[in-house]
């Protein structure tokens, strides 16, 4: 499609034509520039990956009250992501129009895109999944522990190694009943996670997340996850934003905080 999508209606028509199996669900993400990579913010710099356990702890130490209601590490990572701390999470939405808004809201004059994820239902977990706990708590392991994980071992000896016993300790802090049965391969995978609607932003954006395991990359796809990219014509971003506004998708509703509502209202009457 050389011209790219030029309207909200055009995106909807395209979405309706995407075929997916009964055992798959569709999720979306919007990029203001089609050169952006599909990777979590943590993975964009090696220094951040190496310091992941420090990033996690320092934000908890400096702002403990903000995390007082979060029990699981995954919940803490979601809140950290919300506060723009680099994490191993990548935001998705179940609403293609929200993805379209994020693709168009930047003033960057570049071809944008809406990425469609077809995800096997078996690869979709809930916030309290044991598998999600395993991947989320990787954020608490020091770099040297992650480096020493031996994925060549079978499950029983794997769970008895020192780095994994440390990981099990972290997991049991939120799940005291958790048994020593981490599947080695799961720690290198990517799963889609439906989190609790614990803040207005997740609710308003119909939010979900991809959680990335050690060294996991998405590229053009991943086991259980396939990707289709829809280009958005850069010359039509402003028009598309006006169409979305008519559908009540704008800065005030996507980012439901009073300062954003005030900013939106001010722009609306000063245009």
Provide a descriptive summary of the structure in words.
By secondary structure, this protein is an alpha+beta fold. It has one domain (8-129, 190-270). It has helices at 8-17, 46-50, 52-62, 73-82, 96-104, 130-136, 143-147, 155-160, 162-174, 200-204, 237-246, 251-254, 258-270; strands at 24-31, 89-93, 112-120, 124-126, 190-194, 207-212, 221-222, 225-232. The strands form 2 sheets. It has a 4-stranded antiparallel beta sheet with strand order 1-3-8-7. A hairpin with a 2-residue loop joins strand 7 and strand 8. The radius of gyration is 20 Å and the shape is globular. It starts with 7 loop residues before the first helix and ends with a helix. Residues 22-116 form the FRG domain.
Over all CA atoms, what is the radius of gyration?
Answer: 20 Å
Q: Using the alpha-carbon principal axes, give the shape.
A: globular
- Spatial gap, N to C terminus: 33 Å
- Annotation, overall tally of beta strands: 8
Protein name: FRG domain-containing protein
Domain FRG: 22-116
Organism: Chromobacterium rhizoryzae
InterPro entries: FRG-dom (IPR014966)
What is the structure about, briefly put?
This protein is α+β, with helices and mostly antiparallel strands. It is built from 13 helices and eight strands. The protein has one domain (8-129, 190-270).
Task: Considering the chains and any ligands shown, give keywords for the structure.
globular, four-stranded antiparallel β-sheet, alpha+beta, four-stranded mixed β-sheet, 271 residues
């Amino acid at each position: 499609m050389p011209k790219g999508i030029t309207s909200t209606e055009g995106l909807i028509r395209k979405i309706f034509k995407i075929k997916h199996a009964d055992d798959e669900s569709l999720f979306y993400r919007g990029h203001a520039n089609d050169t952006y990579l599909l990777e979590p913010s943590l993975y964009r710099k090696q220094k951040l990956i190496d310091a992941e356990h420090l990033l996690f702890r320092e934000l908890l130490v400096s702002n403990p009250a903000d995390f007082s209601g979060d029990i699981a590490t995954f919940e803490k990572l979601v809140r950290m992501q919300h506060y723009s701390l680099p994490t191993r999470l990548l935001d998705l939405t179940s609403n293609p129009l929200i993805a379209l808004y994020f693709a168009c809201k930047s003033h960057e004059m570049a071809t944008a895109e809406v990425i469609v994820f077809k995800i096997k239902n078996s690869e979709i977990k809930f916030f309290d999944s044991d598998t999600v706990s395993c991947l989320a708590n990787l954020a608490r392991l020091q770099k040297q522990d992650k480096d020493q994980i031996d994925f060549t071992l079978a499950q029983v000896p794997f769970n008895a190694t020192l780095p994994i016993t440390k990981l099990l300790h972290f997991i049991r802090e939120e799940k005291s009943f958790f048994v020593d049965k981490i599947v080695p391969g799961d720690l290198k995978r990517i799963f889609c996670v439906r989190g609790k609607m614990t803040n207005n932003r997740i609710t308003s954006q119909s939010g979900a997340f991809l959680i990335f395991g050690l060294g996991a990359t998405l590229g053009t796809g991943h086991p259980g996850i396939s990707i289709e990219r829809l280009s958005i014509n850069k010359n039509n971003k402003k028009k598309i934003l006006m169409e979305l506004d008519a559908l009540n998708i704008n800065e005030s509703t996507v980012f439901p905080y009073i300062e954003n509502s005030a900013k939106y209202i001010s722009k609306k009457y000063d245009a």
